[in-house]
Amino acid sequence: ELIRRLLDHHLENASARTRSGIAILATGGFGRHEYAPFSDLDLLFLCAKSPDGEIESLAHSILVPLWDARLDAGHAVRSLSDALELPSADLAAATALLDARFLIGDRELSDRFLASYQAKVAKGSTDSFVARLRAEQVSRHSRFGDTIFMLEPDLKNGPGGIRDMCVGRWATQVRFGTTETAKLRAMGEISPRQAEAMDAARDWLLRVRTAVHLAAGRRQEQLRFDLQEV
Fold first, then answer.
1. How many CA atoms lie within 13 A of 64 on its CB side?
2. Torsion of CA 117, 120, 125, 127, to 10 degrees
3. Residue 123 CA to its chain's centroid (Å)
4. Staple 42 to which of 20, 28, 145, 199, CB 3.0 to 4.6 Å?
5. Contact 180, 162 (CB under 8 A)
6. What is the per-residue pLDDT across 150-201, written as a single tens digit (0 to 9) for each?
7. Which residue from 230, 173, 43, 22 is spatially nearest to 109, judged by alpha carbons?
8. What is the value of pTM for the model shown?
């Protein structure tokens, strides 16, 4: 609600030319509604045409009060055509947009982009996209301890952590067009027991991550011994 009110204020005070043809979307964990207390907050300023200096200035004016409020806010300013090219060019940006959701601005532009983006990802080589996800996962595991038996595991990036759950959801999104366990059950892709286990695991990981952030008073992904006691 805070972000929407801030966005609304700045859009209302922007020029009519700047306001038209721009939609602001939440991406990444913010887009997935998985925002821990000290997570970074990612916004996409989506423009119908190539963004100009006024759009960049608008984005900056919105970000400054977020930084002043000690929110770790990041952003990207992209045209519709550039954003649609991301699946083949940048895996991290492409997966962040799989989680995108509309916040404020031109709703028609946002709906058109999200539909076109999902269709483009689905029309591409699903096996190739999933293979890229898997390659990133293997590389990440090698950096964060390639075992589930870490005594101080990284809740986000370690094996079996939140990022691995995201990889599974992104893979199901491009293969089956949904990440909802209820829909995957109805399609016969997972069993009721698997659906229940996935939902419980997601809930547990997010609750533990939130507790760790609050106990540390900052962004903290590693479950250190001192935080385990708390």
1. 7
2. 30
3. 21
4. 28
5. no
6. 999 999 999 999 999 999 999 999 899 888 999 999 999 999 999 999 999 9
7. 22
8. 0.88
